[in-house]
Structure of RpiR family transcriptional regulator:
Amino acid sequence: MSNPDEEPHGVGVAALIRQRLGECSPAERRVARALLASYPAAGLGTVASLAERAEVSAPTVLRFLARLGFGGYPEFQRALREELAERETSPLSAYRAAERTGAPPEGALPRAAASLPEAVAGTLAELPQGELDGAVRLVADQQLRVTVAGGRFSGLLAHYLVLHLMQVRGGSRLLPATPVERTDMLVDVGRKDLFVLFDFRRYEEPTLALAREVTARGAKVVLFTDRWLSPVAGLAEVVLPSRVESPSAYDSFVPALALVETLVAAVIDRLGPVAGSRLKAMEAAQQTFGGA
């Protein structure tokens, strides 16, 4: 980029676009939305094709990229291509890369001590306050029914979040895996529904398909993802990205877990006495029904 300091360290291009959206002119926002709606493919064609997609002029596209800190369209596309390579990284490819370079001499514990705290701190520092506020506003809205879903690994985060929401606000549920139960839960989705989705690199097509279907029916989506942003970001009302640096070949969910706990804390703050009353009722119900 023409000025490296313009982009926060570790933030991907899509996350940077979302961060700068509030600073843009209406025409520049059309460019941003066109990019996010078909990311990153929309940015890999010509300036003219992106301008046509956004229904703006080519100079508007270039002004928007300059606002992001890019020196020109080739530099922007180079950043997108580098992101594409990173997005496709799998545990196996990361393992093979580490194998070629040899095992780090310091061991797993020092690597974890070096990478995990920095990844958590960076995730929280880079999160726009407006995105967190938007997520809190939606999740704390008791007029909305909350459904939470994740993928093969991120389903653990989804389950963790929904267990907290059950206790502090109610009206929350985990999307079931079995087809009959899932269909029963989704058949009546509408404007009074909020979906909190977890989708990280090697993004899962069923999660995108779910987001498309529920948003078409009027539901809102809050997305937890990585810094490269899941394709679901183009459909989401709020996007909460996190870093994934880890001491192993696997991406770390430690920063994402920190974001989940931050969201829970902020929801409790917003609900105030309502959360306290709900917790008290849950404690009493556990005594009555023998809940663990």
The first strand starts at residue 145 and ends at 149. The first helix runs from residue 13 to 20. Strands lie at 145-149, 172-174, 193-198, 220-226, 238-242. DSSP finds 13 helices and five strands in the chain.
